Amino acid sequence: AELAETLGFRGEPYWDWDAFCRSDDFTAVSVCTPADRHYEHVTDLLRAGKDVLCEKPLVWNWSHPPDRIVSDARALADLARATGRVLAVNAQYPAAVGAIRQLRREVLGEDRPFSRLECLMQTKGEPRSDQGAADGWVDLAPHLIAFVDALAGGGGIAWETLRCETAGLRVDAAFDWVGAREVPGGVLPVRLVTERVPGGQPLRRFSDGEVVIDYEGRNVDGWFVAVLRAGERERITTDFMQTSIQRFIAAARAGDPRLALVPAEAAARHVEALAGVWARCLR
Prior knowledge:
By secondary structure, this protein is an alpha/beta fold. Helix content is 37%, strand content 28%.
């Protein structure tokens, strides 16, 4: 009653998980539970015939070894394929790739391929676990890894090139991303920095060493939008979260996971990258 009064909620609350999964009142579910419950919840929903948009990361459990985490992610992707359901992850920053390319082209005056990529993502607040800097990495890096994957056109980390430093709640990871179809030579040097900060406006920054582009969310005439800024130039575009949700809805309606912004197959690869850095540098 309080939720309905405060937010105008008109849905039906469920207190029985099995009844929720069996319900015929809906066909798609957004899973926003803690990451250590994702595997269980997504498994149940896929087996119940639901399409699922899962919060990032697809799976995570601090008590599990890295290979178990990666195995669980792959198992969910396999289950989605076997059940014929759409499973996607809400790591929305791939939606920024097109607008960032356009803004960079305007600044440079030409459509020049990326030769390197640096990304900084900050968030406010204390860690949600006792894992220190690794907590912020697992929380924020899924966005950045998904962004790199989308911009590069696929690929993955060349583990022998990985270099990682931590300072307080900051993780600074550098590596070569190989198999990049959108990059001449197929290799993109990447640096990803995640950090929890005590206050102020957290930075979300993307750079190729020449052009620095900052992101911020802004309310414009009652609509929340994404704003990308490079110096005096600014580009306003649809909120990335909204794009992610719209793409999932389109994928679910068409029964085609390829329409999702981050489909399960890609999300499983992203978990492999996420866990690989954790295992080699942060554990």
